[in-house]
Design a protein that fits this description.
about 25% strand, 9 helices, binds adenosine-5'-diphosphate, single chain, Rossmann fold
């Protein structure tokens, strides 16, 4: 577990949509190598927060830093992505007609900004990386199968693998276990906790059992600000959290 201080630093960030503050003086620090869960009721600002980090939404006020050197407010979406910030949306989007292996290959090609030709000879380095990622996501045995035959959970892991091809420093993951079986959820917990340490992982998730099983630190958002932060035990016994969220 190598930690060098914050990888992401947001200070007093505000985002208004037609005068409505979806994010309201949000302060958030994510440490290098940390696995953080973000919870909060619908409309709390979780999606908007992710959109700010990736540069999709511009704050009206505040500052957002990646490490100590990169002011994200001075960068556009592709520039931010190229720093090593990867985002996994809720629905899996893999190329169903291509094999698991080819999906990972394409993800690598995208990184190098070349037009990928699937018949192109792979460099040893890329092959090694694909093998490594296949192991990490537990799909080695299915490598030559079309992605279309994978289960919902396996597709989610493949998409995480596609992000891993580019060795991200920060992974943003939106509701990874929605629609998964119990077994798939357990495997996903192992996957995400295994990734932390090597990179930072921020997970937005509604399933409280899952959050409890993976997160050391939980941030509760409410009305665009941090309502509570701490372990799941700490935040779930916080009366303000119980009132707005868990008790609802
Ligand atoms: P969450 O992901 O926690 O459910 P969101 O970030 O999606 O919350 O939304 C926070 C608030 O901002 C909600 O009240 C939502 O209706 C509002 N909002 C989000 N995006 C927009 C937008 N593009 N225009 C207007 N209002 C928005």
């Amino acid at each position: 577990d190598v930690r060098h201080g914050p990888i992401l630093y947001m200070e007093d960030v505000t985002v208004s949509f037609d005068g409505f503050k979806a994010i309201n003086k949000l302060n958030l620090t994510i440490d290098d190598g940390e696995l953080r869960c973000i919870i909060g009721p619908n409309g709390a600002g979780k999606t908007t927060m992710m959109d700010i980090i990736t540069g999709k939404t511009r704050p009206n006020e505040g500052s957002v830093w990646f490490g100590s050197r990169h002011n994200l407010l001075h960068m556009n979406e592709p520039e931010i992505a190229s720093l090593g910030i990867g985002r996994k949306f809720q629905k899996p989007t893999v190329f169903e007609a291509l094999s698991v292996f080819e999906n990972l290959e394409l993800a690598m090609a995208a990184d190098k900004r070349i037009i990928p030709t699937l018949t192109a000879r792979l460099t040893g380095e890329v092959k090694d990386r694909i093998d490594e990622v296949l192991e990490t996501i537990g799909l080695t045995a299915l490598r030559y199968q079309p992605a279309g035959i994978l289960s919902h959970g396996q597709k989610q892991w493949l998409e995480i693998g596609m992000l891993l091809m580019q060795r991200p420093r920060l992974l943003l993951v939106d509701e990874p276990v929605a629609g998964m079986t119990e077994q798939e959820m357990e495997r996903t917990a192992e996957l995400l906790t295994g990734l932390a340490g090597k990179q930072s992982v921020v997970v937005v998730e509604h399933d409280m059992g899952f959050v409890r099983s993976i997160a050391r630190q939980v941030t509760v958002l409410h009305q665009g600000s941090v309502l509570a932060e701490g372990t799941m035990d700490q935040v779930s016994s916080d009366p303000s959290v119980v009132e707005v969220y868990l008790g609802a």
